[in-house]
Amino acid sequence: MEQFSVMARFLRRVQPEHGVTQLLDALPDVSVFVKDRQGRFVYVNPRGCEYCGVRCAEDAAGKSDRDFFPPGRAERYRADDARVMKDGQPVLNRIEPEPCAQGSPRLVVTSKWPLRDAAGRVIGVIGCSREVAERAPVSLGASRVARAVALFYARCGEKLTVAQVAQSVGISVNQLERLFRGALGETPQRCLLRIRVEQAGRLLRESRMRLAEVAQTCGFYDQAHLSHAFAAEIGCSPLAYRRRHQA
């Protein structure tokens, strides 16, 4: 306890923010963010800015996850932050998809803590993420999930089955499903569908391919399958999404 009181006395003498943001800004492989109780970004370090697609922290200040990520993912982030602030308990070393706006085959290790004011009231949340591949040591299970997700991205346009992926990473389908539920909170099938929707979104933004071609390229059964999955994940039809982003 003495060491903590010594540290507390020392920190009270430090000029607010002096050296802290400089340190966080210098971390090349770690994303750090701070949000207020309304989910608005207060601070994002350079790696976090890359995830949000902005030049600097000032460009993200006052905005929320909804401004940078697809609706489904933004709501998951918001609900997760709200739970941390409500319970007052941190989330430590959780494996989840990298928070890139356009989707990513990589996984990250994420931790979040509630932020409190001088009176002990929770006023926000602070979090950090680091790529699984750069974390040492990493569990064999997390490594296999990361390899499976990378396969989903590389081959999402194919008629890929979970059994094929499980075989590729050297485990059974049941084992793969348990690992996915434990690490990502979703089944491999759900993860693959989400990735296909993300890739479809990229093609809708960046190309003029017909919807039927987009569906085929991203591994959907047909255009109707794409439309249904896209609306469920993104909150609008593929055509409406394209019009919004190609206007």
What does this structure look like?
By secondary structure, the chain is α+β, with helices and mostly antiparallel strands. The chain has helices at 2-13, 20-25, 46-52, 57-60, 71-87, 140-154, 162-169, 173-184, 188-206, 211-217, 223-234, 238-245, and strands at 30-36, 41-44, 91-97, 107-116, 122-131. Helix 6 crosses helix 7 (162-169), helix 6 (140-154) crosses helix 9 (188-206) and helix 9 (188-206) crosses helix 11. The relative contact order is 0.09.
Structural class: alpha+beta
Task: Report the count of strand segments.
Answer: 5
* Form type: globular
Number of domains: 2
Radius of gyration: 20 Å
**Mean pLDDT, as a whole number?**
85
Identify the CATH homologous superfamily of the largest domain.
Answer: PAS domain
Give helix and strand order, one letter per element, not per position: HHEEHHHEEEHHHHHHH
Helix content: 40-55%
Instruction: Give the count of helical stretches.
Output: 12
Q: Termini distance?
A: 60 Å
- CATH architecture identity of the largest domain: 2-Layer Sandwich
At the third CATH level, what is the topology name of the largest domain?
A: Beta-Lactamase
Describe the main β-sheet briefly. Answer: 5 strands, antiparallel
Q: Determine and state the CATH class of the largest domain.
A: Alpha Beta
